[in-house]
TrEMBL record:
<dbReference type="InterPro" id="IPR024654">
    <property type="entry name" value="Calcineurin-like_PHP_lpxH"/>
</dbReference>
<dbReference type="GO" id="GO:0046872">
    <property type="term" value="F:metal ion binding"/>
</dbReference>
<dbReference type="InterPro" id="IPR000979">
    <property type="entry name" value="Phosphodiesterase_MJ0936/Vps29"/>
</dbReference>
<comment type="similarity">
    <text>Belongs to the metallophosphoesterase superfamily. YfcE family.</text>
</comment>
<dbReference type="Pfam" id="PF12850">
    <property type="entry name" value="Metallophos_2"/>
</dbReference>
<dbReference type="InterPro" id="IPR041802">
    <property type="entry name" value="MPP_YfcE"/>
</dbReference>
<dbReference type="GO" id="GO:0016787">
    <property type="term" value="F:hydrolase activity"/>
</dbReference>
<dbReference type="InterPro" id="IPR053193">
    <property type="entry name" value="MetalloPDE_YfcE-like"/>
</dbReference>
<dbReference type="InterPro" id="IPR029052">
    <property type="entry name" value="Metallo-depent_PP-like"/>
</dbReference>
<feature type="domain" description="Calcineurin-like phosphoesterase">
    <location>
        <begin position="1"/>
        <end position="151"/>
    </location>
</feature>
<keyword id="KW-0479">Metal-binding</keyword>
<protein>
    <recommendedName>
        <fullName>Phosphoesterase</fullName>
        <ecNumber>3.1.4.-</ecNumber>
    </recommendedName>
</protein>
Amino acid sequence: MADSHDNLKMIRKAVNFFNEKQVSAVLHAGDLISPFNVKGFTELEAPLHLVFGNNEGDRITIKEWFAKQGANVCGDFGTLDIEGLHIALLHGINEEEIEALAASGCFDLIVRGHTHQAGSYMTGNTRVINPGEAAGVLTGKATVAVVDTVTKETEIIEL
């Protein structure tokens, strides 16, 4: 998920969806915005990994509050190994950076946000995923993505 932009209602809806699907992990590709959004994730059953976006306000408090809840706060860029996949997690402000990471072949998945446009594509053996915006404020659609960790197939889900 990405770009939740202080929308606690949609964060909670996403958390409920992830819990129903019994996902193994939730990755947030930035733009949570405020520390109070930790409240929306309190019921999440899966581990949470997150990075900062370009609109985070108080990064120190966000990091502190989410870490207290057990989240892995990666800063601006995270590398994760989940179920045999090597994953890059970032907000994705710079398209050239996304393209270079994908072309490097170093990652199985690249999870990014920023554009609010949901989509998924392959570059070589690397799947690049933008789950769209969980907030639903720019496109009018609140979306998240679910990835099959065996096939790397991705489904964009409208909340």
